[in-house]
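Provenance and format

Records in this collection were gathered into a single text stream. Each protein contributes a sequence line and a token line. The two records reproduced below are adjacent in the stream.
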Amino acid sequence: MFLVLRDCHGLVQVIIPQDESAASVKKILCEAPLESVVRISGAVISRPPGQENPKMPTGEIEIKVKTAELLNSCKKLPFEIKDFVKKTEALRLQYRYLDLRSVQMQYNLRLRSQMVMKMREYLCNLHGFVDVETPTLFKRTPGGAREFLVPSREPGKFYSLPQSPQQFKQLLMVGGLDRYFQVARCYRDEGSRPDRQPEFTQIDIEMSFVDQTGIQSLIEGLLQYSWPSDRDPVVIPFPSMTFAEALATYGTDKPDTRFGMKIIDISDVFRNTKSEFLQDALRKPQGTVKAMCVREGAKYLKRKDIESIRKCATDHFNQEVLPVFLKANSNWNSPAAKFIVEEQRLELTRIMETREEDMVLLTAGEHKKACSLLGKLRLECAHLLEGRGVVLRDPTCFSFLWVVDFPLFLPKEGNPRELESAHHPFTAPHPSDGHLLYTAPEKVRSQHYDLVLNGNEIGGGSIRIHDAELQGYILSTLLKEDATLLSHLLQALDYGAPPHGGIALGLDRLMCLVTGAPSIRDVIAFPKSFQGRDLMSNVPDSVPSEELKPYHIQVSWPTDSEAEKRKESFTPSRKLRVLSSVLHQC
């Protein structure tokens, strides 16, 4: 008789001798339920010839057991601890301590630990960085994501959980710690988003007397040094692309460069077109005609796929997209065929480099909107083609890209006449655009840079503003923010702040891509659910009113009419939020 034991290092086969002396051992081990904890002792022996298991690292040996002890029996499991057994994510999160026993979760968390250790070694031992812990209780930061509030015992006074250590790491530069890093816990109250967690971890880095190239070289070396040995090595330097180029070519600021389907401007082809649709678009400011070639789209995509693509364009962008097919007989089978003359057809074929059975998606409109539309459809087409067996996005390929020269400001949502920071208000303007701050701030580029991996933003940073006067002008005059909230930072910048810059890598998302996990929750030991709840401990939870008194807080429950009104505007998955308490100062 044999059974398999598992510990943190793997599996080993145990043989129970078939004699009377092993009767007690046999009884203990055979009656112990699956996943029980046992201690055994015995002799390590070679397996009989022909019984080796090459699929197991310990497949050439087994343990001939002498004694056995049941340390703790396991009750009936809610699910089997096997990776191939299908389990709902809610059940996995409810019994997370059991889910952590799976081979995949063990691998993910151990690889995460190994990579973080290598990063510490690279930064601290090889490059002289100082690991500094920054406070978790802080104050509200103007702009950026919504922050979690923490009540204090002073009436009407709250702490905020920092969405990043941004201000602290800049203050450390003022304090003379010229190379800072931290494995930082960050908090953002962003609601239900599948690719986000309310609490997350980032590799936070800041340096004095550095430029953009210096930061990028450091990060490239960091990833190359810490990269898992069982993956293809990281090749540096990473390619770079401006924000404008990324938008014009891929329709997004985080392009997946593992496959083609680039966007091409074909406005010149249709300057003299008789199509009112195209002429109206070209007459408008920033008007353009864009196209994208889907290789073998006519071969693999079906009519329902084409309708889905067109519906996606209408639903998300309120814009028309025209599919164009080039068949072997050179006829156009498309709504666009009626306004494309032979000369335009030949020119379009030349520019797009189309072949038989390719499909061209054509749209017209304002530059940014048209590019964004085709950028979304590019990913949608890749998904559809991969569903038909076409390999476009190799999961074993890691395609890094720097995106640079972002705009410093964007029109504020809801009030386009006002500006808001494209990233955060501490980002320095591009050296070539400094004069535009006072005449045309909407045209100013920033010294911000994002690191993209396979279409996912895994890091972002910038060269910071180290001049108090400039920082105050941007906050008060351009962004119309209350600069008193940052008086401590503005004051610090006046005391000889060195030029500095930094970056933060999203550790959770990076590990998700490295391990090939379907969700960032699969690389975090105890994550929150899609709705931001901990299903294992059932939090957030209610608090007795007696415990709220020292914080001068009471709960105001919504009336039935308010609850019903909210219920109409909430999706079923968010209805629980209707009952969330609203905090009011007494």
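Adjacent record:
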Amino acid sequence: MAISKAFFSSSLHPSLHYSPSRPTTVSLHFPFPFPFSAAPSRNLRLRCDAADSKPTVLIAEKLSDSGLDLLRDSADVDCSYGLSPDQLAAKIASCDALIVRSGTKVSREVFEAAKGRLKVVGRAGVGIDNVDLQAATEFGCLVVNAPTANTVAAAEHGIALLTSMARNVAQADASVKAGKWQRNKYVGVSLVGKTLAVMGFGKVGSEVARRARGLGMHVIAHDPYAPAERARALGVELVSFDDAIATADFISLHMPLTPTTDKMFNDETFARMKRGVRIINVARGGVIDEDALVRALDNGQVAQAALDVFTEEPPAKDSKLVLHERVIVTPHLGASTVEAQEGVAIEIAEAVVGALNGELASTAVNAPMVPPEVLSELAPYVILAEKLGRLAVQLVAGESGIKGAKVVYTSSRDPEDLDTRLLRAMVTKGIVEPISSSFVNIVNADYIAKQRGLNFAEERIKREQNGLNGTPVNSIQVQIPHVGSLFASAVTDAGDIQVEGKVRDGVPHLTKIGSYAVDVSLEGNLILCRQVDQPGMIGKVGGILASQNINVSFMSVGRTFRGKQAIMAIGVDEEPNKETLEKIGTIPAIEEFVFLKL
């Protein structure tokens, strides 16, 4: 019997927006930053209005000389550091591009003050929390970042914190400088033979694992998307989240801050760890509940912590966590090496120059190229594609490494007449984004999939259906091959997780899961149950939900043969608590079930 906690939830309500003041731009706006624009040439052009003069690039935070030199070859560069919000708004109207780090907030007011001239915002680094992506999209401004240049620097800093913490370097240093000589107080622990759990096996996590292996540590990792082959090549074992935190002597965090990972490490999580565990965080401060960490340090559940990032930066001067005697801290130095700063400057400068020349970088966060007529007719299928991706990935067992997916489209049109780039990008978005800091769109979907070692295949099948010849897509099927599943009924005889859906009256529907036919509106939350096909099952489950004041929005049952097995799909408006789900699981005729957020 499986209970799956959802990765995250989303409610998508798109609207097609046309801006008369900029007649060459059509955008489909969603609550999340996934924009699409198209110029008549099918290429997004971001050139300055004054074609005969150089564009102006405003550098709001310090950038290394190598990046500045590259920019000066193509643009007039204005280095104005430490601008107040009002000063930035006053200058931006005369600028075609803006480059910032994490200290400058690029708000809606900045885009409004630019009056349409600002063509590109470059974030010299990975995170873009300080840029209002929705506003950037609405004002037709491209946003690019520099996600690769600081990988080694961040990994090295993680190892530096790991070793410093294990040997009490920071505390011993402060003690000696205070005139003390306390050798017995600062006895450390050896790393050889200890288990390190790397939570998030992307670029930085992989590099940390590589270096930790060199220190003689046994390395395990948790990342639902990490290919098992890549982990094995580094001598790393992929395990479930629960196994990772329960067996590790050291835990190094390398996951992004998303709705799923926000305060993922809390009182409950710490209680499930091995007593005396040591924690390193060079990822994002918000993944740790800092008050809970203080409690875990005080009661000895966590022996030590080494932190480079915090929920609020800088943290309060009287922060109990920062001042704790068994915590070592650094002021977000993960990317702070000469080499990393040089690399970030070059990477962001190249992306900004390319954008000003009408090119689209692989690091574009919100850049689209979809003809408006294609966008308009595919709008409802865009939602279906992403939700099928989200649904499929939630069914994957945590210890399985996803190697890729296959998307099968049936259409009454000839395969060459069906433009599926947008739909493939949305399936990629649904599969990748839940535990990633990447913003996936039609421009960067293939790039992000490749970076994560995911192979996406497509198949277009022409199938005539009565009354549907005018629709671009009849059905979309998402297959994730050769992975374990939290819901065995979703797995086909070939060993693939398979979900299929259609659009009916503009609403996406789940029509098949595994080999079972269902009819489920993909809205809200979903409970899937495999049961013995017998009378009264709907009433039993409905009664349990009703007793907890949980409203059922729809219910559908699909079965193989009468009296054999059936799949019951129940849509609920509210999220049931753990006790309610456990009650459903105690019904004798229910063989397995899973809870999903759509």
